[in-house]
Amino acid sequence: MLNKKINNLLKKIFIIDDDYISKFVNKKLIEKSGLFNEIAEYDSGRSALQLLQNPELNHETIPDLIFLDIQMPDMNGFEFLNEFEKLPNYITNKTKIVMLSSSLDDRDRDVSLKNNFVIDFISKPLDNEKLTNIVFN
């Protein structure tokens, strides 16, 4: 997967997760890393997609990286990926996705990593080592 990794510092990240505690912990870890200028949080894939589908979307609003949970009510991570693929190339070419999940199902990992936009699948919780590996490897 190394050829799909991100090799430079990033500006904007989305955390899409319905679990408040996971979002809070991940946001604090990401803030502390100093690797991102802006962190946006979403409780569902649908709310993040609404922003990305906005025809007046500013290029600066497009995330460089998305941490995406799989198991969410309204729209799960796989449904989000299906809709993400339909977005314009200027969005999908810029944004990379990391599945960040508590799922222990190998099928979830396999399906995730077969998606062209997914650069990694990480088991929760996120930690400094995992974050550094995503950004620098």
Question: Could you name the key traits of this structure?
Answer:
disordered N terminus; alpha/beta; 6 helices; five-stranded parallel sheet; 137 residues; Rossmann fold
CATH fold annotation: Rossmann fold
Level-2 CATH architecture: 3-Layer(aba) Sandwich
For the sheet with most strands, the description reads: 5 strands, parallel
Judged by helices, strands and strand pairing, the structural class is: alpha/beta
Name the overall outline: globular
Mean pLDDT: 89
CATH superfamily: Response regulator
- Whole-angstrom Rg: 14 Å
Number of domains: 1
Tell how many strands the DSSP assignment holds.
5
Write down the CATH class.
Answer: Alpha Beta
Low-confidence stretches: 1-7
Number of helices: 6
SSE run: EHEHEHHEHEH
Give the N-to-C terminal Cα separation. 9 Å
Neighbour order of strands in the largest sheet: 2-1-3-4-5
Proportion of residues in β-strands: 15-25%
